[in-house]
Amino acid sequence: MARTILTVDGLTKRFGGLTAVDAAHLTVPEGQITGVIGPNGAGKSTLFDCITGITAPDAGSVRLGETELVGRAPHAIAHAGVGRTFQTPRIFEGMTVRENMAFAAVAQTGESVVGALARPGAVAAEEAETDARVDELLAFLTLDPLATAYAGELSGGQRKLLELGRVLMLDPTVLLLDEPLAGVNPTLGATIVDRLEALRTDGRTIVLIEHDLELVMRLCDTVVVLHHGATLAAGPPSVIRADPQVIDAYLGRMET
Amino acid sequence: MAIVTGWVAFVVTVATIACIYGLLTIGLNLQFGFTGLLNFGHVAFFAAGAYTAAIVSMPPPGTVPGARYMIGLAVPMPAGLLLTLAAATLMGGVLAALIGVSAIRLESHYLAIATFALAGIFYDVLVNERWLTNGTFGMTQVPKPLRATLGADAWALAYLLFAAATLAVVYLLVGRLLEAPFGRVLRGVRESTAAAEMLGKDTDRIKLVAFSLGGAIAGLAGGVYAHYIGSVVTGQFVAGVTFTVWAALLLGGVASHRGAVVGAFILVAFQQSTRFITTAYDAAVAAFPDTLGVVLTALAAPLPGHPAFLPSVRFMIIGLLFILVIRFRPAGVLGDPQEVTVMGSEE
To answer: B302 CB near a chain A CB, below 8 Å?
Structure first.
């Protein structure tokens, strides 16, 4: 049994009268792919927003290992080891693919005014390191031919890949991917799935929101079903597929 | 000969003012062009720098007849110039940091309104705190370093060189910052604060640094300006200055470091040279009374309010310049369309 790396406990978020996330529970095993499914409006993206600090939850806790994340700023949560992509990729369109990747490099001397002006040697050395890491990741994601293209010129699927690559620059403990395959053509989709599996082989922990149930059942080790903001069921795909509650709330409706 | 001297003196004056506006535009470009911070109160940092330079360098209180102020440190010139400019830079930066701490989290146009209002409040402080600033009468004995030694003409030229050197140093330093990871981070924050946060960047701090740095550069511009004009008066620091700097930035090209300086020079040159429209008109009519003079008089006669209307043609020419730039170079003279089109397209 894999160790639990991320624990969401009793997480609640209300927007006025609407409870978007309702005492949700989630345990993410290390080194596996966990799928979060549920109908539109089930609270999946809000759950990600609460975990990553974009939205402050009203109650509950999120722990990465032993570290409590609730109450921290989003950038601090990213530093703690949670990387996240968005449903609509938020790439920097006015920057090249390479610059997008390099942006995410951590702890850069050249990001401070004093470092950039007074320590050109250290900056150059770090930039060379960043470049090497960017090259490696771009090759891994098959984006290397597009390194110097403006990100604004990329297709939907390439944007998803770039956003994935950018967050990998952080070397995150847990990757939260919000619909990594939405709006991606089948060829690129297959590449993305292949890369996600490769990341798992490398020991990465991934949590993904996805609507393609067949893919979720095939790719994920654990599936969590959200319904009206609450955790309806959680378990291996085979168990979830057979869960009458899940069939009633989600799967059944899909098949009719 | 006198005419040549006159023209040279005019060019020297325009170039010096253009250098000062070049500094202001570099500061605003750092804030808006590279970080996306809509600052509509830039003049406040300029004023903060100018008044600080005046307060640090003016003679002690009581020695200037009719002027009320309390500090007047009388730093000796010319060596003290570096000190007064350092103080001006610092004060511009500190004022920007203070405004930034309260307002930097505001998104786009909310920040624009907040900075505009805070600059207005700062202006009121300059007008009303007479003990410090001598109110609307201003501080009129700001030393012009080496002015007595060099004489008027040589001093004007020397000060132009000094202003140009200051602009060059700031241009190079900021250019180096923008090419470093610092610049990359600013541009990322500009495009998507949310994405930058998700990638571990403390966007509030980054925005505050960029905003303060822009304010510090405007403060330096204020210091250079105060010692050039020799006086600081509240009337010099009205909101129009902010929008002149904006115009220079848009003209040169937002998010283009070179464009900021080029825009400032084009705008100041146009603003100043079009002052002579009436002179040029009169000269043309006088020189060719039977040909060009007839045509010009015929053209000008139907204009409303003629002949007082003529000087206003200046603003029409500046307006025309903007229309031409927006029509043919919407990203500015040196702007990169790829970079400019994405500005403000997110969130």
So the answer is: no
